[in-house]
Amino acid sequence: MILKAKERGGGAQLARYLLSMRENDHVELHEVRGFVCDDLLDAFRELDAIAAGTRCKNYMFSASLNPPGGADPTALDFEKAADAVERKLGLENQPRAIVFHEKDGQRHAHVVWSRIDAERMRAINISHYKLRLRDVSRELFREHGWEMPKGLLDWRERDPLGYTLQEWQQARRVGLNPKQIKTLFRECWEHSDSASAFTQALKERGFTLARGDRRGFVAVDYRGEIYAVARQAGVKTKEVAERLGDPENLPSVDEAQKAIAARMSERLKGFVRQSELEAARGQKALEFERSEMAGRHRQERQMLNEALEKRWIAETNARAARLPRGFSGVWKRITGGYAKIRAQNEREAWNALLRDRAECDKLIASQLDERRDLQRAIHEQRERQQADLLLLREDIARYQEMNLPERSSHHREKDREGRKRGRDRGPDFGFER
């Protein structure tokens, strides 16, 4: 499993986030251990109150446990992984909560520990936790026989297309996948051997090279979004400076944004709006199917949980009926028969718990398989939309370069008809590709 973690505060805010269904198909509060309350929000408010008696601001340790794609670890596997983490970090017996999230056909877990030692009212120091989590992650991959990512084996081989939260949010604003943006910049960089070639390569894809305030070299797109060249291309800042020269020769970000805005006519803005509208239409059908599937899966799980609870109550009553009462019970205690019956009941209860868990895990695994099939269709749809948006950027760059005058209503009508015919291959703006 890939383990990511950080120390943080804000218990109530974290609880609301973990229980949010906004971007998840399913959310399950699996475990609340060591708290007075069983409710996650009240439990984390309890942490807030305890931490108020100390000077610790980041009084929680929050970790996400992410199995590799296609893997279906059980709830017990996640628990064992959480146990391994807390042993490695010295968080044994600390209050803990586990929440399962399911999204895009994958299941992962969020585990939150209290860092406050309630007896001494001091925070537990967790030094070098990233290195320790890396060791635990490697052990989990070996234990389950999963293929280990290259970046986990050797940090120098980590994915160059990895992105930060800020880059992901920026990509969402412009309707592109953050990895595709990075791929675009890397291609421009690798196929350019000079500043002019790199500038032209970016220009053909709808980006203007500019001088950043702190980053040195940045690129600005037609929306005014700013991209750090070194970060997006996956190269060192020193390499960028050596190839591109003095950034003072470039326009500032403000100047680039104003120049782009001056060239963005209402006609080009209409192209953008139409492309985004067509992309949204394609998503609605699949989003409806995803929502319907998630609702059906929740109903199936509820029915299973109700059946398991009913069976558990019946079996518990049957085990309780075995225990002798009255004078017979006293005699059984003296002769040791009572202890044997109680031990048998405990074994059967434990086996019944494992059986019920296995049935839940089986149902969840089958639902995840069904969800992955839909996710593949969603992914293919997104890939087509991404390709259309990238072509749109190139088309806008060409239109801005050509600086064509507004065309007649007759030509505009022909453009609209051409775009309708070419929806399956992306927007068509009236010129040959």
Task: Report on the architecture of this protein.
The relative contact order is 0.08. The protein is elongated and about 100 Å long. The chain has 433 residues and is of the alpha+beta class. The strands form three sheets. A five-stranded antiparallel β-sheet has the order 1-3-5-4-2, with helices on both faces. Strands 8-9-10 form a three-stranded antiparallel β-sheet, sandwiched between helices. Helix 1 packs antiparallel against helix 2 (40-51), helix 3 (75-89) packs antiparallel against helix 4 and helix 12 (266-322) packs antiparallel against helix 14 (337-402). The longest helix is centred in the last third of the chain and has 66 residues, at 337-402. The protein has three domains: 2-157, BirA Bifunctional Protein, domain 2; 165-263, no CATH class; 267-419. It has 15 helices and ten strands.
**Quaternary form:** single chain
Report the strand count: 10
Total number of helical segments? Answer: 15
Shape descriptor reads elongated
Average pLDDT figure: 81
What is the N-to-C order of secondary-structure elements (H for helix, E for strand)?
EHEHEHEEEEHHHHHEEEHHHHHHH
The helix fraction, in percent, is 55-70%
CATH topology assignment of the largest domain: BirA Bifunctional Protein, domain 2
- Secondary-structure-based class equals alpha+beta
Major sheet details = 5 strands, antiparallel
Could you say how many structural domains there are in total? 3
Across the major sheet, the strand order is: 1-3-5-4-2
Distance between the termini: 44 Å
Low-confidence stretches: 404-412, 422-433
The portion of residues forming beta strands comes to: 5-15%
